[in-house]
Amino acid sequence: MFGNINIVGYLRPISIPKSLVLEISMDQSSSCVSEWLTETSDPYFYIPISAFLPGALTKTDASTGKDYWLATLTSGPSSTSRVLAFSPSSSLSNLVRVEVSALDTWFVEDEKLLGPHPKDPYKRVDCIPSSREIKVEVNGTVVARSTQNVFLYETLLRTRFYLSPVGVEWGLLRESSTTSYCPYKGMANYYDVVVDGNEIKDAVWYYNYPIAESALVAGRMCFYNEKFDVFIDGVKEEK
User: Fold this and answer.
1) pLDDT at 26
2) Is the CB of residue 104 less than 8 Å from the CB of residue 23?
3) Residue 35: is its pLDDT beyond 60?
4) pLDDT in tens, 110-138
5) Averaged pLDDT for residues 60-87
6) Residue, of 149 and 64, whose pLDDT is higher
7) How many other CB atoms sit within 10 Å of the CB of residue 192?
8) Would you say residue 208 lies in a domain?
9) What is the C-alpha separation between 54 and 158, in angstroms, rounded?
10) Using H for helix, E for strand and C for coil, what is the string for 75-119?
11) Rounded CA gap, 167 and 145, in Å?
12) Quick one: average pLDDT of 59-66?
């Protein structure tokens, strides 16, 4: 079902034609036109209640507040209770907020998306190649040094440095089982760093198959700035 998603936030409403499909355990639960309200640092989809399939939504708590109630979204044997529905008297009249992180699968148009939340239309990611030397240390021990880097600039976040794997001291890294998802970069895997017997958990991450807008960081190693001493052309970066 095609139509407009209204993106409401930052005092600048936008209308973008999109179709949204949500799935739980691979069973299609709704196809709809929705409103996207960026009320927090992360955006949510706000979907017209009329767009849900009959029986998909069940009210679970009417006492939460006069303008909204908790609900359960069900598809076959699977369900999630991370759903908030708004009454006709609310400023978000007859809209339903669904946390996409509670879903097994969600699509915008024909694209299957990853991550704990939709993309923010006011956020962008720039990946810029740089030959400036990046040196990463822990208590004076060099764990990485590279002049073949990509600087990743993401709106409202600090710059991250993605280093060539050739410059990494691999003997200090231990593979971690941790993974995470970013709407702007894709699925990340992690390494722990061990120096003089001291472990820094999930201190390095990388993207084997980043999404298109972050393609330049593929296979590069990013050290968590806040956990290391990072030098840019010999000048120490503030943590």
Assistant:
1) 31
2) yes
3) no
4) 877 767 778 888 889 999 999 999 999 99
5) 77
6) 149
7) 16
8) yes
9) 45
10) ECCEEEEEEEEECCCCCCCCEEEECHHHCCEEEECCEECCCCCCC
11) 5
12) 67
Supply 49's token pair.
């209640």
The domain that holds 75 is classified in CATH as 2.170.150
Structure tokens of 16? Answer: 């973008």
Residue 118 is assigned to a structural domain of this protein: no
Maximum separation of any 2 CA atoms in the chain, in Å: 63
CB 129 within 8 A of CB 216: yes
Place of tokens 């810029």: 128
Q: Do 168 and 131 belong to one domain? A: yes
Residues 152, 86 share a domain:
no
Calpha distance 235→165 (Å, rounded): 22
Residue 200: both structure tokens together? 């820094």
Distance separating alpha carbons of residues 74 and 27, to the nearest angstrom: 10
Pick the closest to residue 131 from 146, 142, 143 (CA basis): 146
pLDDT-derived band at 231 (thresholds 50, 70, 90) equals very high
Domain that holds residue 93: 3-112
Q: Is residue 120 part of a domain?
A: no
Tell whether 232 is covered by a domain.
Answer: yes
Q: Is the domain of 95 the same as that of 142? A: no
Select from 82, 112, 142 the last residue of a domain: 112
Q: How many domains does the chain have?
A: 2
Tell me which amino acid residue 146 is. Answer: S
Contacts of residue 175, defined as CB under 8 A and 6 or more positions apart, other chains included, come to 191, 192
User: 3-class SS at 132?
Assistant: coil
